[in-house]
Design a protein that fits this description.
The complex is a heterotrimer.
Chain A (H helix, E strand, L loop, with lengths): L1 H18 L3 H22 L16 H7 L4 H31 L13
Helix pairs in contact in A: 1-2, 2-4
Chain B lengths: L2 H23 L8 H19 L1 H7 L2 H26 L21 H34 L1
Helix pairs in contact in B: 1-2, 2-3, 2-5, 4-5
Chain C lengths: L6 H16 L4 H21 L5 E2 L4 E2 L1 E5 L10 E5 H24 L6 H20 L3 H19 L5 H32 L4 H11 L3 H18 L8 H7 L2 H27 L6 H23 L4 H21 L3 H32 L15 H14 L6 H15 L3 H27 L6 H5 L6 H16 L6 H6 L1 H9 L1 H9 L2
Helix pairs in contact in C: 1-2, 1-4, 2-3, 2-4, 3-4, 3-10, 3-13, 3-18, 3-20, 4-5, 4-10, 5-6, 5-10, 6-8, 6-9, 7-21, 8-10, 9-10, 9-12, 10-12, 10-13, 11-12, 11-16, 12-13, 12-16, 13-14, 13-15, 13-18, 13-20, 14-16, 14-18, 15-16
The chains are: A mainly alpha, B mainly alpha, C mainly alpha.
Chain lengths: ~120, ~140, ~500
């Protein structure tokens, strides 16, 4: 169920990328799409009543292993956020440069290359 | 920026920086690590830029220095990996003794990797912020 | 020896950052350094042919290395088999010639050290994709290679280049999001990110709906990266807009490694769909459509690089179609054609760069009569054109012949017919290129035509190297060499998940 909501968010982002004609809105669509994936990764490790997967001093190992949530998706989401952060910075820089060249953010007017 | 922002920045900025260092150094025993620590440190620099302007920050940490720190730290990271190959037969082998649990030196090479990644991330994010803000300046100059 | 494969990732990555650190104002250092690094990597990849042992029929290569010494379900491993060795040779050979070429070609650009750093990062990303045995690691390397290629496409910061790069970036980011989603669903179902362990899980419990969903997401993502026909919109913009060496790199290796190799690895070795008729038919249909539509779109192009870019789609269609046949011969033919295409398409793009440098235009309507002025470019371009259109004795002929034979033997004469038609149309469009660029009367400005048009020395050398490879790659089907390189690589795919799991050593 909750995974379905992630998919919905992903599709909203995809809609933004495909339909919108403004560069900034396309970028926002991309970001929404990426965040949907990140949300999904975090949800994968969710478990009711789980605890933080960091061993503290004096904690019993057996109890810790039984309760702690899966730490791997959290590592993965951190990496994915870093990568998407880089992509977002790059795409914003490209959009700014495009605005310098064309004087507009409208995709309809940025069509010097024929499809 | 307004005097309020400047004063508050002056008060809390060093704490933000030190907190970033803490998150970096204790990444292997507490929540955190290289990337969050690096982002916090970069945020402290960005805060200075917002409060005191670009010229002040450039004297502190120029774009060129940021680029140098960026490349240097990734090279140090690879060197840590190479040392693992020399001493432990595998690339990135953890060749230092594991140490006592819950202490700073309990992670072997992980501490050094975290610190290096933290500096890399802080320099890179700061440089990105500066580049994107410089763009706007050039464009504004073009329009006038 | 045991740590040797790691060098394929570290060397380019480290040297790239070294240039940014030390040689920002001294592009000469980074030029020579990049040539040295890629030559070293090419030699190392040739050394890897010697790895493995001979079991009487062919060479078996399976080499597993756990990073940092962590045992497998915990750590990340590097896995090297014959398919990886074949792809490593392709990637490092092309990048060596391309970097040799850019020593002269990139003279007109500023901040060249960044160019070499980025191209080395791209190389590191691609080598990483080939070597890694971990799904998430594959995603990270894929992003490293794609982000570098986005920046390289926009390297000239002209309006068209920025537009093409933006289009490429948006499509690439969608593909990456789909791939990441697929990887995470595999993790959700199987509880592991290691390809071998996930394959074992699938072998034990079979496919379920979630896994099919994950596979379709990965299929879409990798097809976007490979520019197969429903997803090809970005390629004809991005490939011509980049500087010529980058076009050669993108068309020659990037779409193969990021798209086709990753698709094959996931489809055959992880999900073990090598005997699944739906998957194979899908590859056949997509390949056939790409083959025909790509070449039809190429026919009426007048921009020389755009024409070559459409041919890339068409030739990738050949590769995917041949692999979709599902037989051993088809697999070998597909991989052989992949190798050949990397060589002759890079050669053609390098030629187009030489033409553009000399004449200042990419339009075929404005060239002509250049054969006398640019002999090396003309001869190598002739060799490349004959290879791509499948004329004996060049390498393209043998691989296309194998594809047609394989299609007939697999009981798919329709696809054999498609391959023949595609080949004829390719020949037609390359006759047009040859005629308008090199043989017809000159339509150039008199002043440009009279000046010295010959390409600089390194450009000529790298084009000649690739042209020589166009002839010598035919020897890959000689029995001795065939059993050394091509046949074991196809076997790695044919054995599917079982072979991969056994190779990693679970």
């Amino acid at each position: 169920m909750i995974y379905g909501l992630c998919l919905l968010l992903f599709l909203i982002g995809f809609y933004g990328v495909v339909v919108k004609r403004n560069l900034i809105k396309i970028i926002m669509g991309l970001i929404v799409m990426e965040y949907a994936v990140h949300l999904f990764i975090v949800l994968v490790s969710y478990q009711r009543g789980g605890i933080v997967p960091i061993l503290e001093e004096g904690q019993k190992i057996g109890e810790f292993v039984g309760l702690a949530v899966d730490p791997l998706p959290q590592v993965l989401v951190l990496t994915a956020i870093v990568i998407n952060f880089g992509i977002t910075a790059l795409v914003v820089a490209l959009a700014v440069r495009l605005y310098e060249k064309y004087g507009t953010f409208d995709v309809g007017e940025i069509r010097r290359l024929r499809g | 920026m307004s005097p309020i922002v400047q004063t508050v920045t002056r008060w809390i900025n060093s704490f933000i920086f030190i907190f970033g260092l803490y998150v970096m150094l204790y990444g292997h025993v507490t929540p955190g690590g290289g990337f969050p620590g690096g982002v916090i440190i970069a945020c402290s620099f960005i805060l200075i830029t917002l409060a005191a302007g670009k010229e002040f920050t450039f004297r502190l940490f120029s774009l060129k220095q940021a680029s140098v720190v960026d490349s240097l730290s990734i090279l140090l990271f690879l060197i840590i990996g190479f040392l693992g190959m020399v001493f432990g037969n595998y690339f990135f082998a953890n060749f230092l003794p594991p140490g006592e649990a819950f202490r700073l030196q309990s992670g072997g090479t992980i501490v050094f990797s975290n610190v290096v990644i933290g500096f890399k991330v802080s320099a890179a994010i700061f440089a990105m912020f500066l580049y994107l803000s410089l763009f706007r300046l050039e464009e504004g100059a073009g329009e006038e | 020896m045991s740590n040797l494969p790691v060098l394929f990732v570290i060397l380019p990555l480290g040297f790239g950052f070294l240039y940014i650190l030390l040689a920002r104002r001294r592009p000469f250092v980074s030029e020579m350094g990049s040539v040295a690094v890629t030559l070293t990597l090419f030699m190392l990849s040739l050394i890897l042919i010697g790895a493995g042992y001979f079991d009487g029929q062919q060479v078996i290569r399976s080499f597993n290395l756990n990073m940092g010494g962590w045992a497998l379900p915990m750590g990340i491993n590097i896995y090297l088999d014959s398919l990886t060795v074949l792809m490593l040779i392709i990637v490092n050979m092309i990048s060596f010639t391309v970097i040799l070429y850019s020593v002269n070609y990139m003279k007109k650009y500023s901040s060249r050290s960044y160019f070499y750093a980025l191209i080395l990062f791209m190389l590191a990303g691609m080598n990483g994709i080939l070597l890694t045995g971990d799904l998430f690691n594959l995603y990270v390397f894929l992003e490293l290679a794609s982000v570098s290629s986005y920046i390289l496409v926009s390297f000239g910061v002209e309006a068209e280049e920025l537009e093409a790069a933006f289009k490429y970036l948006v499509m690439g980011a969608i593909a990456s999001a789909l791939i990441l989603l697929g990887v995470i669903i595999i993790y959700l179902v199987s509880g592991t990110l290691n390809i071998a362990y996930a394959a074992q899980f699938i072998q034990e419990y079979g496919m379920n709906r979630a896994l099919y969903f994950a596979f379709s997401l990965l299929l879409m993502g990798f097809s976007l990266k490979a520019a197969l026909i429903p997803f090809h919109a970005w390629l004809p913009d991005a490939h011509p807009s980049a500087p010529a060496p980058i076009s050669a790199m993108l068309s020659g290796v990037v779409i193969k490694v990021l798209g086709v190799y990753a698709l094959l690895r996931v489809g055959f070795n992880l999900f073990d769909l090598g005997n699944d008729p739906y998957f194979l038919n899908l590859l056949l249909v997509v390949g056939g459509i790409s083959l025909i539509i790509g070449v039809l779109l190429a026919l009426y192009q007048w921009d020389i690089k755009r024409l070559f870019a459409y041919h890339s789609i068409s030739q990738m269609g050949y590769v995917v179609m041949a692999i979709g046949l599902g037989t051993g011969l088809g697999m070998v033919a597909g991989l052989f054609h992949l190798f050949n295409h990397a060589v002759f398409k890079s050669l053609l793009f390098l030629n187009s760069g030489a033409l553009e440098t000399a004449t200042g235009t990419r339009s075929l309507k404005k060239m002509g009569g250049l054969a006398r002025k640019m002999p090396v470019t003309a001869v190598t371009s002739m060799i490349g054109s004959l290879s791509i259109s499948g004329i004996p004795p060049f390498n393209g002929f043998w691989s296309k012949l194998m594809i047609i034979f394989a299609a007939v033997l697999a009981g798919q004469p329709f696809y054999a017919l498609l391959a023949v038609i595609g080949s004829v149309l390719t020949l037609a469009s390359f006759m047009k290129v040859q005629r308008y660029a090199f043989w017809d009367k000159c339509r150039l400005d008199k002043k440009i035509y009279e000046s010295d048009l010959t390409a600089p020395i390194f450009m000529r050398v790298s084009m000649l190297i690739l042209a020589v490879f166009c002839i010598f790659l035919s020897f890959l089907i000689l029995p001795g060499i065939y059993r050394l390189i091509l046949s074991p690589a196809s076997l790695d795919l044919l054995q599917g998940a079982a072979g991969y799991i056994g190779g990693v050593g679970l």
